[in-house]
Design a protein that fits this description.
With about 450 residues, this protein is α/β, with parallel strands linked by helices. The protein folds into 3 domains: about 1-35 and about 60-110 and about 245-315, 3-Layer(bba) Sandwich (FAD/NAD(P)-binding domain); about 115-245, FAD/NAD(P)-binding domain (3-Layer(bba) Sandwich); about 340-455, Enolase-like, domain 1 (2-Layer Sandwich), CATH 3.30.390. It is about 25% helix and about 30% strand. α1 (about 10-20) runs parallel beside α7 (about 300-315).
């Protein structure tokens, strides 16, 4: 059997890895249109801040390690067309500008997404960057030490935008963070959390410009010089675009079925509308555990599960893609937060009635000093208004308590309720936790009808 995998990031890598683990004799051709396979954009901040020294280390695999396992790796070779009836793809070799046809028995499309561009005047000026992929990582790294770059404007206040803002603030630049939404990180956290994080951003020299729409990039001598919004103008020698992504699927029209947003339609087994063609990653929707249906969740963990699901089905094992809750985490200077599932800010769009309880407590008993790992913890638990089924949660602290969100992810997947969590068994040791875990406290107090609980 010959399997062609298009794309080398999370989903493509996992599809290759999954096939190799169970059927290493399979003929696998792995295509990447860039010159570098399996770069992890989620690790870019670590490189930009110098935690990881070599940009080439921010990856899953190298061509040599893949080839040593029998995989035919092709870099700078772009798949430009798929002919499903013929089971063929067209390959454009960017090295010598030639094209050829390759036959496949099974095809995996891990084509991913690309940064969304702003259709405003000046978008083609120099020094308007993205924060996605190895090439941009190298260019951004140079800007962190560029003495001529004093003002940086980041457009988009999601995970990527906040990471970019933190990187350049730590590098001594004046940073403005712009978003059309009222709050930074609004899609991931409710206001109890974002208000604290906004204070932190300001304290570290970042200017939040929320609720503003970009109208123009102003320039001088072909270089970007500023960003004009509907409310103000901000100087900028560097602009970083992180205002969302769009699926890289325009070339697949007519080959597989796409939805109105260009996402590849897949069934529960990652199969597309075309026989023997699978799709995984950011260009697809995934089953959503809290309320059913499908959502777009562009996370590495999701893409890896999709890649493994595709591999299993290619090998004849009937496996459905498991439902997910969109669990994720991030550090913003001293704070560490994680969230999963439904929030107050997303419930209306999902069309569900929810209730929440917000708890402030300490990470350790009161006698444990801050220097030994004690700090306030902020936790919010969201549940169905009628059934009290757990639907989501958010947690944040200056000590790392983010792993607790995995408990909620499992609770969502297991359709657990407040009653299930109220007296669930968690360990206690003063150096780690409190006798009643904050999840217990939240569920117990929610059963009493409370919506807010402060530390005793």
């Amino acid at each position: 059997m010959k399997v062609i995998v298009v794309g080398s990031s999370h989903g493509g890598y996992e599809a290759v890895r999954g096939i190799l683990q169970e059927a290493p004799e399979t003929e696998i051709q792995w295509y990447e249109k860039g010159d570098f396979i399996s770069f992890l954009s989620c690790g870019m901040q670590l490189y930009l801040e110098g935690v990881v020294k070599n940009v080439n280390d921010v990856r899953y695999a190298t061509p040599d390690t893949a080839r040593a396992q029998g995989v035919d790796v092709f870099v700078r070779q772009e798949i430009t067309a798929v002919a499903p009836l013929q089971h063929e793809v067209t390959v454009h070799d960017l090295n010598d500008d030639t094209s050829r046809t390759e036959h496949y028995d099974q095809l995996v499309l891990a084509v991913g997404a690309e940064p969304a561009k702003l259709a405003v005047p000046g978008a083609d000026l120099a020094n308007v960057y993205a924060m996605r992929g190895r090439d941009w990582a190298i260019r951004l790294k140079a800007k962190t030490v560029d003495p001529d770059t004093a003002n940086v404007v980041v457009i988009g206040a999601g995970y990527i935008g906040v990471e970019a803002a933190e990187v350049f603030a730590k590098a001594g630049k004046h940073v403005t963070l712009i978003d059309i939404l009222p709050r930074a990180l609004q899609l991931y956290l409710d206001e109890e959390f974002t208000s604290r994080l906004t204070e932190t951003l300001v304290a570290h020299g970042i200017t939040p410009a929320m609720g503003q729409s970009v109208e123009e990039f102003t320039g001088k001598d072909g270089q970007v010089a500023g960003v004009l919004t509907d409310q103000a103008e901000f100087p900028a020698e560097l602009v970083i675009l992180s205002a969302g992504i769009k699926p890289a699927t325009h070339w697949l029209k007519g080959a597989v079925e796409l939805d109105a947003k260009g996402l590849i339609k897949v069934n529960d087994y990652q199969q597309t509308s075309a026989a023997d063609v699978y799709a995984v990653g950011d260009a697809t929707l995934v089953p959503y555990a809290p309320v059913g249906g499908k959502q777009r969740i562009a996370l590495a963990t999701v893409a890896r599960r999709q890649g493994r699901t595709a591999a299993k089905n290619i090998l004849g094992q009937r496996l459905k893609m498991p439902s997910v809750s969109g669990s994720s985490a991030l550090s913003v200077f001293d704070y560490h937060f994680a969230s999963t599932g439904v929030k107050e800010g997303t419930a209306a769009k999902l069309g569900i009635a929810i209730k929440s309880i917000y708890v402030e407590d300490a990470a350790r008993p009161a006698f444990v000093p801050d220097a030994a790992g004690n700090a306030p913890v902020y936790f919010k638990l969201t549940y169905a208004a009628d059934s009290q089924r757990i639907l989501g949660a958010q947690i944040m602290s200056k000590v790392d308590v983010t792993a607790n969100i995995n408990v909620i992810s499992l609770a969502i997947q297991g359709k657990m309720t407040l009653s299930d969590l109220a007296y669930a068994d968690f360990f206690f040791q003063p150096g780690f936790d409190r006798p009643w875990h904050i999840i217990n406290v939240a569920a117990q107090q929610a059963l009493l009808g409370k919506t807010t609980v402060k530390a005793e």
